[in-house]
Amino acid sequence: MSILAAAKAEPHPADEGSHAISVGIWWRIPPHFLNAIEEIDLRERGIYLDYVSMNFNKAAEGFDRHVIDLYLSTRSRELEERGLRYVPMTTATYQCVFAPDSPLAQRGCLTAADLRDITVYAGADYRDMPDLAVSADAQELFAMDNVVKESIFSEKPIQDCAQGTAVAFFPRIGLANELAHASALGKLDSRPMAWPAVSTGAYLADNASLEAVQLVEDVARICRKA
User: Fold this and answer.
1) Which of 5, 42, 119, 121 has a beta carbon 3.0–4.6 Å from 168's, enabling a disulfide?
2) Residue 202: predicted pLDDT
3) Is the pTM of this model over 0.70?
4) Top-level CATH class of 2-90+199-225?
5) Level-2 CATH architecture, domain 94-196
């Protein structure tokens, strides 16, 4: 938010006749989202895009303070309860990540029951996703004592997964990046989770400009083609 505040105080290209759009980004959005935005940015020279990485809570604050026009992320219960308009762009299944020699590697699709006897790293972000709230399997998983509800992107969880003492789970849309990040710590494998697909898209402020709305619609169109 301090980055946004500083950017807002600086001379802005919008003062010279351009349209400025402040874009909040959840750091695990699919790379092709940014590729699609870059494609539009190169094509529409009249739009100035200002990016900042933020979580769900900071995005909610950003909308309240009118410092962001849109937010790219997975669906968020908190943001939807604020009445923000959500435009879905892509969907993907969840994947469970583990050591390749784990017994889990023999299964085609995993459920909560398959994970009872091993530490499960589940980031706090997952608790805010309405897609998971409707899944009995997901509710069963979060109720289990062996689920660790903390960040799954630090070195220890990845090492534990590589050593076979734990698993973690990710939306498929960002999995390639996470596995690449973990490659230095050991090869990892993954299997789909038997849960609903997670939706990734954009939230728009009530007072979002026509340019911001058009940007989201254009990005959605490009992503769906991809």
Assistant:
1) 121
2) 94
3) yes
4) alpha beta
5) 3-Layer(aba) Sandwich (3.40)
